[in-house]
Amino acid sequence: MQQKLTTILLLSTVIGISAGTSAEASGSLLTDLSTQELPTSKLLDRHFTTEVKLVEDASATGDRVIDDNSASIEAPSPKSDWVGDAHAPSVVTSPKAFDATEAIPLPEPMVPEEIGGLNLRQSGVMVSQQVPATPPPADSLPEPLPEAEPEIEDPDPVLPTTPVPPPESAEPPPETGPTVTVQRFEVLDSTVFDESDFDTVLSSFVGRALGIDELRQAADSITQLYLNEGYITSRAVLPNQPITDGVVKLQIIEGSLEEIRIEEADRLANYVRSRINLGAKTPLNQFDLEDQLRLLRADPLIDNIEASLRAGTGLGQSILVVRIDEAEQLEAHLTLDTDSPVSVGVVRMGANVTYRNPLGIGDQIRAAAYRATTGGSHLYELSYSAPINPMNGTISARFLPSEFEIISPQELASFDIEGDAQVYELTYRQPLVRNPREEFALSLGFRHRDGDTRIASTDFSSNSASVIQFGQDYLRRDPQGAWALRSQFSLGVDWLDATNLSSPQADSQFVGWLGQVQRAQVLNPDHLLIIQGDVQLASDTLLGSEQFVIGGRQSVRGYSQNARFGDNGVRLSVEDRITIQRDESGAPIMLLSPFIDMAAVWNTESGTTVNDDRFLLGTGVGFTYRPVEKLNLRLDLGVPLVDIDDSAPQDVFLYLDFDLEL
């Protein structure tokens, strides 16, 4: 009897894990590269499969348009294999990565003159001595219909020019007007470049006798320097001036945005404007502006975005007109998977609903419910998140109640073992660097969990954990793939009646670290190699809700869910996703994914080892099928390569993950 009670005690620890959700530990799990909450932000939230193009609007207005209509951006699956959602299994499960049905979120290769399909090569039209009221952006693609621009009439030039009759031949006659020997140039009002930058560009004009046309060419070379760096509304002009001691002054007009005008998006106007402002500093830079538009294009609140740059009312000023198509606010999914432990029933069904922008500030409410088909477990989630600054600094709060009942094996089910858990989370995440190519963020959170286990309706055990979490995450995309890294330090504290027991018993007093790395490498258009690694280290014996868990679809395939657990652990997974069929647009709809997974766990105190089978190694193949846009089906066949002492050993494990967006 004592042996059975010991088994029950150990099992209750496992159930304490399984009764929770991997959503409980989502703060510990690295974000899927194809999503970007990047961890809740989508970029490191969502990705671009094609480019946002800068084209010329051939309408009579002559607006310069950043057109996204041709962009095909696949929305990632709402489930992130690496972020534990409310219907995933236990806590610090070794995470998976990338929705198998989607292409890796990679930007196109970038060169200085062409980013995101924006052709910035100039047509060779140089500025004149006249100063336009609003300098036009860089020439690109087809020439637009000309737009009349008001001009400021120049005063009489200091350097007089001699009228020249129209040439009789194609070759212009040599300049016969007065010249000046230039000793140096003085560039005025530049906030971007140093004098050394200008010296390099203007060196060929110094020490020569130059006429008015050559002096204009010198100004044009400075304009080209600005254009090459993306300052498409800035230019240099040759002002009316006296020439003294061979010093020629060139005036810089640095372009700025006079207004950001948002159309067709009343509820999102302030949200969009505040983010565009991050890329609208003076002087206006096309690359910075495009980055912010790309981030907005990837935002789940926005279905489509177009922007056009128009002449402003002042010298060097422009008006950016942004047209927004808001995405559907309500999103719902039905799911079916095998991510639940055998003890409470393997097959699980569920539903989740997300309502975006309820308060008009870019916030989000999510509710979810999941139930084992046997009735052995019920998992729920209610969460709210809201951005508090244009860099997508986000505050999130979550409540995660769950309950379970042991139904297998029969000898334990007869004890009528049941329990429940409640998790409360509050997290603040602040990106410090955020653009379509990379994101670096820090996060600080607090999590409190209460759990109880009962036998025949009598309290058997209870525990409580209060944990402060400090995280750092980084995502980097390159033309060959993407890197994602995360580090999280956890400090267990004696708050809110947290469990506090003498060593070596598990309690809430501990220090732990979780490190994760993920690499997605494009081998060729049909092969995507995914390598993942995780490691957890802990200073003390941990409660079950804080332990590193291995086994199952999201960890080591070829073994049952939560097959092994420990205070410390490592995991490595390698998977090759092979596209075998694409739809008409080129998106993969059928994939085969051979894989190999391995992991090991151990406890901090050697005397508390659960069993001797601490290393798992499995291999197999996954099959992904997306017959329609909103249906995602994945089947994994896993084979264990290392035998473990299990009450119900299997030669082959079949894992299911079905997701239907309503």
Automatic annotation (TrEMBL):
Give Gene Ontology CC terms: cell outer membrane; type V protein secretion system complex
**Where is the sequence biased in composition, kind Acidic residues?**
146-156
Gene Ontology biological-process entries? protein secretion by the type V secretion system
Q: Is Chloroplast included in the keywords of this UniProt record?
A: no
Name the domain of life.
Answer: Bacteria
> Start and end of every POTRA domain?
180-255
Name the keywords, alphabetized: Cell outer membrane, Membrane, Protein transport, Signal, Transmembrane, Transmembrane beta strand, Transport
Give the signal sequence positions: 1-23
GO MF annotation terms: protein transmembrane transporter activity
- Specify one Pfam family: POTRA_2
Give the subcellular location: Cell outer membrane
Q: Where is the composition biased (Pro residues)?
A: 133-145, 157-176
- What are the boundaries of the region Disordered? 129-178
Instruction: Describe the family membership recorded for this protein in Swiss-Prot or TrEMBL.
Output: Belongs to the TPS (TC 1.B.20) family.
Report what the protein is called: ShlB/FhaC/HecB family hemolysin secretion/activation protein
